[in-house]
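Cross-posting from the chemistry board since nobody answered there.

I work mostly on the small-molecule side, so proteins are not my area. We synthesized nicotinamide-adenine-dinucleotide and want a rough idea of how it might sit in this target. Sequence and SMILES are below. Is it possible to get a predicted 3D structure of the two together?
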Amino acid sequence: MHKISMLGAGFIGAFYTNTIQRSRSKDVVAVVYNRTPETAEEFSKTYHVARWTSDMDEAINDPETDLVVVALPNFLHKEVILKAAKAGKAVLCTKPLGRNHVEAKEILEAVEKAGVFHGYLEDLVYTPKTLKALDYVHKGALGRILWARSRETHPGPHSPHFFDKEKAGGGALIDMGCHCAEICRSFIGKDVLPVEALAHTDTLVHPIAAEDFGIGLVRFENGAVAQIEASWTFRGGMDLRDEISGTEGTIWLNHWLRTGFEVFTASGTQGYVAEKMESDKGWLFPVGNEEDALGYIEMFNDMFDSMEKNEKPTETFYDGYIVNCILDAFYSSAKTGRWEPVQIDDWRGGHYEKVKTTKDYDEKHILIKDEIMPDGKHKFILQDKETGRVTQVIK
Ligand SMILES: NC(=O)c1ccc[n+]([C@@H]2O[C@H](COP(=O)([O-])OP(=O)(O)OC[C@H]3O[C@@H](n4cnc5c(N)ncnc54)[C@H](O)[C@@H]3O)[C@@H](O)[C@H]2O)c1
């Protein structure tokens, strides 16, 4: 059983606490920190947390708790994780780990030096659909993964710190592209080196210094490509979709809008429908259990199980660090307009070359393509092994 100091009583602190407390888990949030005492007290009542405090150090050093969960704005992650590591506590941090890869590296080094358990709370690689899709990919159902595409878009976040470039470390790309980067890494293979990145960012709608729109490509050492789409300009709710293509197959995942629960109401549902849903009237797409659909339940199960077994969870601060390296390359590329290297000082994965697999048609020819035509005949497109000449055979 773990006793938790929850740092932050905002949007994600509530999701995390609700997930941990509501699933009748043996782990409990023992104390919640919020800088305004009134909110901390109200949160403790709503989510059944025994104690609250407006003193951050008191929450981190609480003698009853063994685990600190960081649910605070990005600019506070480094400061509080360094304190938690000093206190010898296990620590879980929301995304992104740092505002840039330098901060993330300092965070990683601090927890590793202190020898404390660390978990990166990237919930979207733990959704039930994603876990099943990853299982298929690991079993080879898609063959060699060539292209992973991940999109997170909505009309914009819910608090000022997200829109403050200095406090957040960027705009929509760091806020939501961090999810997409880790989703793509998970499907392509987390031990495959991300080599270079190209990105376009712009500020299209919101009057802010940071970007509210960003699209990026990452080229991996084995030739796979990640395509990342993050926007705060999308209207109509929250669009969370992933596409994975391999030599043997394809997976399309839709996590939020129009996923099989559609409601029309002229009079309205009188309030909240689902995260970032813009209306409570007309055609609505509610979500049955948001904690489950967004992966929070399986994410905390993995964190607590791993702590008990003294093992690393699926997502550690090292993953958070690699994600920050990718995002930094995006921001460099958005400035220069060129592909920029993903600078990783501490690569712990493998090295994989681009491997092309070919199929023989007969002794003399390689099969390029086999297609059934409208008249029912098979068209085989072939390459001569000696001359390289491309021909066709129709059967
Ligand atoms: N799916 C996800 O994983 C997900 C979703 C939303 C947010 N987040 C992350 O969670 C973090 C917090 O976001 P949120 O949505 O909960 O924001 P929020 O604004 O709803 O809550 C922020 C919390 O931090 C506190 N806070 C703000 N400024 C502070 C300061 N200067 N000193 C001390 N406390 C301060 C607030 O009082 C509040 O408790 C961010 O890093 C964000 O990227 C993750």
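Reply from a structural biologist on the board:
Welcome over. Reading the output above for you: The longest strand covers residues 145-153. Residues 382 and 391 are 5 Å apart (CA to CA). Happy to explain the token format if needed.
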